[in-house]
Amino acid sequence: MTTTSPKGFRAAGVAAGLKASGGPDVAVVLNDGPRFDAAGVFTGNRVQAAPVVWSREVLRHGQVRAVVLNSGGANACTGPAGFQDTHATAEHAAAAMGIGAADVAVCSTGLIGERLPMPQLLPGVTSALNKADPGGGAAAAEAIMTTDTRPKTVTVTDASGFTVGGMAKGAGMLAPGLATMLVVLTTDAVVDASTLDSVVRAACRVTFDRLDSDGCMSTNDTVLLLASGASGVAPDRDTLGEAVTGACEDLARQLQADAEGSTKDIAIAVVNAASEDDAVEVGRAVARSNLVKTAFFGNDPNWGRILSAIGTTSAAFEPDAIDVSINGVPICVGGAAGADRSTVDLSGRAVDVTIDLHAGGERATIRTNDLSLAYVHENSAYST
Amino acid sequence: MTTTSPKGFRAAGVAAGLKASGGPDVAVVLNDGPRFDAAGVFTGNRVQAAPVVWSREVLRHGQVRAVVLNSGGANACTGPAGFQDTHATAEHAAAAMGIGAADVAVCSTGLIGERLPMPQLLPGVTSALNKADPGGGAAAAEAIMTTDTRPKTVTVTDASGFTVGGMAKGAGMLAPGLATMLVVLTTDAVVDASTLDSVVRAACRVTFDRLDSDGCMSTNDTVLLLASGASGVAPDRDTLGEAVTGACEDLARQLQADAEGSTKDIAIAVVNAASEDDAVEVGRAVARSNLVKTAFFGNDPNWGRILSAIGTTSAAFEPDAIDVSINGVPICVGGAAGADRSTVDLSGRAVDVTIDLHAGGERATIRTNDLSLAYVHENSAYST
């Protein structure tokens, strides 16, 4: 039920000694073909980790035969030496596989600013390559975890006979453009790189890009989509897009559910906006308000903080026309108090906020989490 | 040492029953003249509390004789009825003083979305007006506190013979445009309203607007500057500006030091930026990163999170040219690891971060706080 669910892929995860815990920390996902088309989406952060710089170049020619991933170190802000480490990793895997390094994408995740321990990493890559098999997807998904409490995998099978599989890691720094996350998606559909590129971009735009757990944008975010063509099925763009978007949406929900220290999964639906951009802007402003997020942690349906966050945006609306409902209760009507706040049930993990701007017909949903004591605890102790 | 330090002002603070605690919650600051010039700066939030809408209109004619302030309720998101409450408050004070309501500014602070209890408020205003005297500034400063742990006041005396006094409240939602704060500044200088306006705007721009405690923008922020002319001294614009900016800077530092749940006062100096706007943008991005803020709460000099936040901006810089020092230690040099992180002493409350963009000659300092367990605790329990 992961990257090795589609035909034509092998994977593995091993413990190479990068993590102090001794847990698995190096993974590979290998495409055995017959086709090697690939596409990728990378962080919008201008401070980009070495593996992002490398893999972006690899993806330019639209072919990937192997992805090497490590947890236990982000290899970000490591200068030219860090880039050489990534290059050496790709060369090492390529040599072992008898392919060119330009067909090897690299992903890293972990603490920013420290060099990777190459004497541990390279033997780990060798070991993972040796172990890679069609049942190795679960082990790969486990090896890319950092503060994740559980691996995240997905499989979507289309009736026409192709499959999309995937794995993700990410638990903090979840924000548009993208989350602190690594995602590898695989499919056995027959599809060219340019179609893959448009499909994966469209899928990210409405899934990972609308997940905004803590407002922070990472240096390492990478989403890769590899196609082996091994099913022999060549779906049309919409059919493939639906399957890939479905897989991304599923993984995004898993990321949200495992966000660091979170006690709530909050969906902020902004409806009747003048434009989709307006809806996204309003949703993000609310999702990023620490006062809104702490209120939900305290089971407090504090709609005043929601209106205060909406007011910071440039979206089209009249303040006295805004309605807000929380878990179905119309707690704010026409920009003022509506139903009694005591009637809102916030005891569960799911929180549905609907903001009606009464300014048009567009909508978007942004997903976020609450800001909890555990989030602060975890993130104040992470690197020490 | 407060709003009544300059000649020509009286003030008072009383308990009217708005606060459940029974503490003081209604204040007045009265200008006895001979002049009544005034200026104000208000929140940039598009969702504006009724008293902001009212006071903005009052300030249009550049004259204020009385300011009525209450804690225990923000009177924001209260619809037309809430605006009528503000109007009635101004009329009530004006009638008691024998002046026009158009000379009475009103400020409110507290929970958003609930109507003010007018049967308590109006007698409180009467009582405060009756008690107002030239020694009442301290009581007024106490009556406007919400989650503040101490009143905030300031006095700046210029050698030429005029004085600037002030009081502030604000402990959360501190963000540009402005903080969740009410500030009343007074001076006995002889100065026209248009000069006051330019002086108070210039002062806010480099003080309150650069304090970004939790990234949230309030619906009620108000800074008023009232001039009585009672000293007979007519300073030039620069001399007055220096005194007012000094008073604002002092109050801003008091707001930062009392920010909800904070354990650190963090100054982020961005130097060698291509423009002041770039410096401000970078400083704010770092100040708003929850991962940076939680790291400082944990005494962790996590410069990687700082670079990651810088990378989200559109400021001019090369990622591999950025230097970051924390409390004097050059922990990041040329975008990569510099001095050992264990050499940074974060045991005190003051944290000085200097970010050198090597992109020009401009600079700005943004002040913020850490994100602590106490912040989450306080803000998850505030309204319930």
Automatic annotation (TrEMBL), chains A, B:
The record marks 179-180 as: Cleavage. InterPro entries: Arg_biosynth_ArgJ, ArgJ-like_dom_sf, ArgJ_beta_C. One of its GO terms (cellular component) is cytoplasm. The keyword Repressor does not apply. Its EC number is 2.3.1.35, 2.3.1.1. It catalyses: L-glutamate + acetyl-CoA = N-acetyl-L-glutamate + CoA + H(+); N(2)-acetyl-L-ornithine + L-glutamate = N-acetyl-L-glutamate + L-ornithine. Heterotetramer of two alpha and two beta chains. This is Arginine biosynthesis bifunctional protein ArgJ. It comes from Virgisporangium ochraceum. The gene is argJ.
